[in-house]
Amino acid sequence: MEMDFDLFMNDVVRQARQEMEISGYKQLTSAEEVEGTLTQKGTTLVMINSVCGCAGGIARPAAAHAVHYDKRPDNLVTVFAGQDKEATAKARSYFTGYPPSSPSFALLKDGEILTMVERHEIEGHDPMSVVNKLQGYFDEYCEEV
C-alpha cells in the first residue's frame, strides 16, 4: 500500500491550522494581511507554526493554553512556515535581531518586536515551560482582560 505524500502533508497542515484557529488565533496567509495586522496598535502574539514534531507536541498546545490567563495580547495571529512563505517572510521582517525560527512566538507592541520564544526554547521542553515563559511575557507587556 502506497501513501500519497502530498495528501498526507495536506492533512497534517490542515489539522495544524485548525488547532490554531480553535485556540483563537487568526491565520495570516498573505504579506498584506501580516502588514495590516502587525501594524495595529496594541500587543500581538505571532505564532510561527510548522509541521515539525515540536510544533505539534509543544508549541501548539502551549499556544492554546497560554492565552487562558488574566493578561494576554490584544491580537493572536499565526503564520505557517513552509506553507505561507510570503506571509512568514513578512512577519519575520518585524522580528529584528532574531534569526528565522519555527516554531516560535513573537510578541509585538504597535508593530515593534518586544521579545521572542525561539525554537531552541521550545524543542526539548515541555509545553508547560513554554506556557510559563509566554505568560511571564504577558505579565510584563500585556494588559489585563
Major β-sheet profile: 5 strands, mixed
Please trace the helix and strand order, writing H or E for each element.
HEHEHEHEEH
CATH class bucket: Alpha Beta
Q: How many whole angstroms does the radius of gyration measure?
A: 15 Å
What order do the strands of the largest sheet run in, or round the barrel if closed? 1-3-2-4-5
Count of runs of 4 or more consecutive helical residues:
5
Helix content: 40-55%
Strand proportion, as a percent range, falls in 15-25%
Q: Per the principal axes of the C-alpha atoms, what is the gross shape? A: globular
CATH architecture descriptor text: 3-Layer(aba) Sandwich
Low-confidence stretches: none
Say what the CATH topology is.
Glutaredoxin
N/C terminus separation:
52 Å
Task: Let me know the number of strands.
Answer: 5
Mean pLDDT: 95
Q: What's the CATH H-level superfamily name? A: Glutaredoxin
Look at the helices and sheets and give the structural class: alpha/beta
Organism: Rossellomorea vietnamensis
Family: Belongs to the bacilliredoxin family.
InterPro entries: BrxB/BrxA
Protein name: BrxA/BrxB family bacilliredoxin
